[in-house]
Amino acid sequence: MKYGRFVDTGTLARISSLDLLAKTVVEGFVSGLHRSPFLGRSMDFAEYRAYQPGDDIRRVDWKLFCRTDRFYVKEFEADTNTNLTIAIDVSRSMDFGTGALTKLDYGRYLAACLGYFASKQKDRIGLVTFDSGIVDYVPPAAKHLQVVLHTIDRIEPGGGGSLREPLLEVVDAVRRRSMVVLISDFYEEPETVIRTAAGFRHKGNDVILFHLLDPAELRFDFDGELDLRDLETGAREAVMPDVLRDQYLELIREHTQTLDRALVEAGIDYTLVDISQPLDAALYSYLSARLYAMKAR
């Protein structure tokens, strides 16, 4: 099914309510997907877990309660991917954009839309934000959409530094088996990103990486002498784009291709997103592809 009516990034930037923005983007394409791309593939019994506020009382195993005097709910295979944890990189390098939105704006909106979409599917939603360490953590729970949206809404650009330690902290923070969505510009050695994503996989999580880059970072289409400032360190350097363009483009191509190849081989979804692309177009394209892959399994 084709979906051709997309909301441009300039329009998104003018919507002040994150809830309204998520609804505007998601409602436009969700009906065309027919089913959630976050569901498991069967309804076989998987495990028991302790009851949590917000859980459906009909899932409580009363026979087990009579034996243990504790409340447990049944989880099925289709439930094991319904804990959605969204992790957003809020480090200083994300506060860059040459258009209507910065990478951090785009990441915030993307996270809000994924949360809204998961909420429509009755999934449990959690959130982690990180820079040099974890900034905010909202554990996955039913009816957490407004808490997640409120946390996303007050995100500010954070500090800088390597992503290695904060990514390891995020792995430790996600204790329940989840679908983990990592949103970042991934200015880190590919091996670090790959090892972290593999760490999530080893804990039984499904993992999705959205790699956000501004069109200027993808094409380096600057003219004349350029004064570059490192958003992480504040260091400045004057460069001539014409001299560096080919070398830069080769490095960015090598970086993204290394991530794509290694992550896909590890069974991890990787999507490179140009943040000038309409958000709903990027989401629809990815989710449709995921559903197609699920049907092929």
How many DSSP helices?
10
CATH homologous superfamily of the largest domain, by name? von Willebrand factor, type A domain
What is the H-and-E element order? Answer: HHEHEEHEEHHEHEHEEHEH
What is the percent of helical residues? Answer: 40-55%
Instruction: Summarize the main sheet.
Output: 6 strands, mixed
Total strands:
10
Biggest β-sheet: strands ordered side by side in the sheet: 5-4-3-6-7-10
- Count of all domains: 2
Q: Estimate the mean pLDDT confidence.
A: 84
Q: Fill in the CATH topology of the largest domain.
A: Rossmann fold
Q: What percentage of amino acids are in beta strands?
A: 15-25%
- Structural class estimated from helices and strands: alpha/beta
Distance between the termini: 20 Å
Please give the CATH architecture of the largest domain: 3-Layer(aba) Sandwich
| Backbone CA Rg | 20 Å
- Uncertain stretches: 39-43
The gross shape turns out to be elongated
CATH class of the largest domain: Alpha Beta
Summed up, what is this model?
The protein is an alpha/beta fold and 297 residues long.
Describe this structure in words.
The chain has about 300 residues and is an alpha/beta fold. The chain has 2 domains: about 10-40 and about 80-295, 3-Layer(aba) Sandwich (Rossmann fold); about 45-75, no CATH class. Helices cover about 40% and strands about 20% of the residues. The protein is built from 10 helices and 10 strands. A 6-stranded mixed β-sheet has the order 5-4-3-6-7-10, with helices on both faces. It has a two-stranded antiparallel ribbon with strand order 1-2. α4 packs antiparallel against α5 (about 145-155).
